[in-house]
């Protein structure tokens, strides 16, 4: 229960549905994330109007994870390059 006191609860809307997100991030951060998810869902839906919400959510998650892994790999390469330049 002590952990719950440190959590912020923020209501957001993603793809027409309201969600209460609990976490330690600021409300503005949670809203930013929700806005990005909503935007990505709408972007994917615009290319295929026959997807149901569940399919759309999964494709959004897959696309987002792919982008995350690419960025993570790029960060790793940059960190290695910086390490070589300093060494």
From TrEMBL:
Keyword Transferase applies: no
Predominant localisation class: cytoplasm
InterPro entries recorded: Bac_CellDiv_Activator, Cell_div_ZapA-like, Cell_div_ZapA-like_sf
UniProt-listed Gene3D superfamilies: 6.10.250.790
Alphabetical GO biological process terms: cell division
Keyword field: Cell cycle, Cell division, Cytoplasm, Septation
Source organism superkingdom: Bacteria
Compartment annotation: Cytoplasm
Subunit comment: Homodimer. Interacts with FtsZ.
Annotated PANTHER family: CELL DIVISION PROTEIN ZAPA (PTHR34981)
Function: Activator of cell division through the inhibition of FtsZ GTPase activity, therefore promoting FtsZ assembly into bundles of protofilaments necessary for the formation of the division Z ring. It is recruited early at mid-cell but it is not essential for cell division.
Classification via NCBIfam families: PRK14126.1
Protein name: Cell division protein ZapA
Species name: Fictibacillus barbaricus
Name of the coding gene: zapA
């Amino acid at each position: 229960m002590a952990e719950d006191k440190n959590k912020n609860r923020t209501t957001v809307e993603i793809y027409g549905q309201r969600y209460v997100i609990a976490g330690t991030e600021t409300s503005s951060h949670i809203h930013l994330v929700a806005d990005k998810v909503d935007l990505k869902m709408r972007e994917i839906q615009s290319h295929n109007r026959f997807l149901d919400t569940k399919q759309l959510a999964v494709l959004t998650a897959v696309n987002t994870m792919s982008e995350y892994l690419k960025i993570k790999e790029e960060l790793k390469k940059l960190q290695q390059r910086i390490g070589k330049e300093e060494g």
